[in-house]
């Protein structure tokens, strides 16, 4: 039998106990390190996933900003200031989330900032929507005002046209009109007496006789009567310096007299001496007064 009190055996047992304790300690340390490493990996994976999710959220918010800005609405000073601050915060968050690792505290801060951005973007969208509606209302009002202005302008132009037409009618109605017009050729004797002729070779002048239609609208005043003479070839016989205006254009006249109109039965005449020999054919005259055609007459000289 072995002697349990043998010092050699007792030393061996102590060594065995020590080795067992060492082995248990090593096993415990390895287990601790294993679980610690696993926990760290799980924490890192969770943080990395959370960071990627936050990056995605920031990008979504940035896209929302871009959509809102595409509305092409003029921002108020307050909205512009808030817009610039939000843009800066987005850039700051993106830069922070691009780091290789972030702490739990940084993630929590990022989540809080992200929530603030979400709240802001909603308010910002509402404000932009309100501004867009207000702009639409203003555009509608402006378009309505423009249509009203155009309508008023069209009415004013129409009224001005009618007034102009009415004024023209009044002027035309007030103009002197001739009737009983007669054109006769004459030769002049040495004593100055006029002898009526119908031959071109004998004629020296033409006399236009006319009466004036009674007109209450015509001014009882002095009026200029213009005469234009056309030879058988249709050529106007007139001095280039003799100009007047009638029927909306400037014309040359052959002769002109001034009469005193009193709206009575007075008859008038215009004596016109031909500066050149008469030729065979029909001579035509046109009378003008107050800017309008007054009357016409003709005579044939053989």
What does the model show?
It is rod-shaped, with a radius of gyration of 58 Å. It folds into 2 domains: 7-134; 178-301, Immunoglobulin-like (Sandwich). It is α+β, with helices and mostly antiparallel strands and 302 residues long. 51% of the residues lie in helices and 24% in strands. A hairpin with a 5-residue loop joins strand 1 and strand 2. The strands form 3 sheets. The protein has a 4-stranded antiparallel beta sheet with strand order 2-1-3-8, with no helix packed on it. A 4-stranded antiparallel beta sheet has the order 7-4-9-10, with no helix packed on it. Helix 1 (7-69) packs antiparallel against helix 2 (77-97) and helix 1 (7-69) packs parallel to helix 3. The protein has 3 helices and 10 strands, in the order H-H-H-E-E-E-E-E-E-E-E-E-E.
Q: Output the strand order for the largest sheet.
A: 2-1-3-8
The first-to-last residue Cα distance is 189 Å
The backbone outline, from C-alpha atoms, is: rod-shaped
Radius of gyration: 58 Å
Give a quick account of the main beta sheet: strands, pairing sense, barrel closure.
4 strands, antiparallel
Helix content: 40-55%
β-strand number:
10
**Structural class assignment:** alpha+beta
Low-pLDDT sequence parts: 37-46
Q: How much of the polypeptide forms β-strand, as a percent range?
A: 15-25%
Taken together, the total number of domains comes to 2
N-to-C series of helices and strands: HHHEEEEEEEEEE
Kindly report the average pLDDT value. Answer: 77
């Amino acid at each position: 039998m072995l002697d349990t009190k043998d010092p050699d055996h007792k030393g061996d047992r102590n060594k065995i106990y020590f080795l067992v304790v060492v082995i248990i300690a090593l096993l415990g340390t390895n287990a601790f390190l294993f679980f610690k490493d696993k926990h760290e990996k799980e924490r890192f994976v969770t943080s990395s996933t959370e960071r990627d999710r936050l990056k995605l959220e920031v990008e979504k918010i940035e896209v929302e900003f871009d959509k809102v800005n595409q509305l092409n609405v003029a921002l108020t000073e307050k909205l512009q200031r808030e817009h610039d601050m939000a843009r800066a915060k987005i850039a700051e968050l993106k830069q922070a989330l691009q780091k290789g690792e972030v702490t739990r505290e940084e993630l929590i801060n990022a989540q809080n900032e992200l929530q603030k951005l979400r709240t802001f973007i909603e308010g910002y969208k509402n404000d932009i929507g309100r501004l867009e509606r207000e702009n639409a209302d203003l555009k509608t009002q402006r378009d309505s005002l423009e249509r009203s202005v155009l309508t008023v302008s069209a009415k004013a132009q129409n009224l001005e046209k009618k007034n102009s037409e009415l004024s023209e009618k009044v002027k035309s109605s007030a103009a002197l009109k001739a009737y009983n017009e007669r054109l006769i050729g004459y030769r002049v004797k040495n004593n100055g007496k006029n002898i009526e002729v119908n031959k071109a070779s004998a004629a020296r002048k033409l006399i236009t006789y006319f009466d004036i239609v009674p007109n209450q609208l015509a001014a009882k005043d002095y009026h200029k009567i213009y005469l234009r003479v056309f030879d058988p070839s249709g050529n106007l016989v007139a001095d280039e310096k003799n100009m007047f205006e009638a029927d909306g254009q400037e014309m040359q006249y052959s002769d002109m007299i001034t009469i005193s109109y009193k709206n009575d039965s007075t008859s008038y005449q215009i004596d016109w001496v031909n500066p050149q020999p008469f030729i065979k054919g029909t001579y035509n005259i046109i009378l003008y007064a107050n800017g309008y055609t007054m009357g016409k007459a003709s005579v044939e000289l053989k």
